[in-house]
Amino acid sequence: MGYSLVNILGGLLIVTSTMVVVSKTIPSAIKWYAIQSVVLVGVLLTLGLTTGATELLMWAASAFVTKVILVPFILNRAYKKMGSPADSTLTSSVKPAWTIILTGLEVAICFAVVTRLSLPTAEVATPALAISFAHFFVGLTCIISQRNILKQIFGYCLMENGSHVTLALLAPTAPEIIEIGIATDAIFAVIIMSAVVVRIWNDTKSLDSHDLTELKG
């Protein structure tokens, strides 16, 4: 029952990731990322209770603070510092329908790979493990397809969430200091990237990556 719930939550992870990518506005993307982070906490809690790994319970607490609270706060603060810029609604280079199809293809490929792995986790949590792997490609899709440079930060965040689930599934008893280290790196990365985006906005009044093709000294 425990791993079945993990797989169901894994399905919700890919749904929320897709919503982050196809969201038309930054506030909407932030909301969906926060929802995904709540689902991630649920995955960690369920795995911790299922495997008896108390380390995962600490991971869940850390993920709640960093991903549900801090990352959305940092991104929302950066957005508001720019005065809710008009081009925050920049359209993606890829239509939402194609994004959904591409995401499904990425999950299918990862599922095919996972079914060929001889790992205990791959036998009981195949969907969740495949989805955690697919998050790397979904995040990469977000970075490549989005014209909005603030929206591109979400691609990194999705990739990082996927790495958390992968680590939790493959090494549930890993010391919590590892998860804290990963989460700390992610927080600082988001802070730095957000600060760079704000600086670009202040200098160019644009968040369109198509307008940022020329380097100036």
UniProtKB/TrEMBL annotation:
<feature type="transmembrane region" description="Helical">
    <location>
        <begin position="30"/>
        <end position="50"/>
    </location>
</feature>
<dbReference type="InterPro" id="IPR039428">
    <property type="entry name" value="NUOK/Mnh_C1-like"/>
</dbReference>
<keyword id="KW-1003">Cell membrane</keyword>
<protein>
    <submittedName>
        <fullName>Hydrogenase 4 membrane subunit</fullName>
    </submittedName>
</protein>
<dbReference type="Pfam" id="PF00420">
    <property type="entry name" value="Oxidored_q2"/>
</dbReference>
<feature type="transmembrane region" description="Helical">
    <location>
        <begin position="124"/>
        <end position="144"/>
    </location>
</feature>
<keyword id="KW-0812">Transmembrane</keyword>
<keyword id="KW-1133">Transmembrane helix</keyword>
<dbReference type="GO" id="GO:0005886">
    <property type="term" value="C:plasma membrane"/>
</dbReference>
<keyword id="KW-0472">Membrane</keyword>
<feature type="transmembrane region" description="Helical">
    <location>
        <begin position="6"/>
        <end position="23"/>
    </location>
</feature>
<keyword id="KW-0830">Ubiquinone</keyword>
<feature type="transmembrane region" description="Helical">
    <location>
        <begin position="56"/>
        <end position="75"/>
    </location>
</feature>
<feature type="transmembrane region" description="Helical">
    <location>
        <begin position="177"/>
        <end position="201"/>
    </location>
</feature>
<feature type="transmembrane region" description="Helical">
    <location>
        <begin position="96"/>
        <end position="118"/>
    </location>
</feature>
<dbReference type="InterPro" id="IPR038730">
    <property type="entry name" value="HyfE-like"/>
</dbReference>
